[in-house]
Amino acid sequence: MKANELRALSQDDLAVKEKELTQELFNIRFQLHTGRLENTAKIDAVRKDIARVKTILQEKRG
């Protein structure tokens, strides 16, 4: 997800998005440890998306 798309969202929407991404990261890690994950690069992508969301939330709150 791009930063411009995230900046268009409200703070409530960003908080929901952060929870969704955190849950997705948990599921990806679970798949990794059970041996069902094929694309390990997805972990890094989701972590970066979470960081983007948190950064933009901080900008809006600050």
From TrEMBL:
PROSITE patterns: RIBOSOMAL_L29 (PS00579). GO terms for biological process: translation. The keyword Lipid metabolism does not apply. Transmembrane segments: none annotated. Signal peptide: none annotated. Coiled coil: none annotated. Keywords: Ribonucleoprotein, Ribosomal protein. Pfam families: Ribosomal_L29. GO terms for cellular component: cytosolic large ribosomal subunit. One of its GO terms (molecular function) is structural constituent of ribosome. Belongs to the universal ribosomal protein uL29 family. This is Large ribosomal subunit protein uL29.
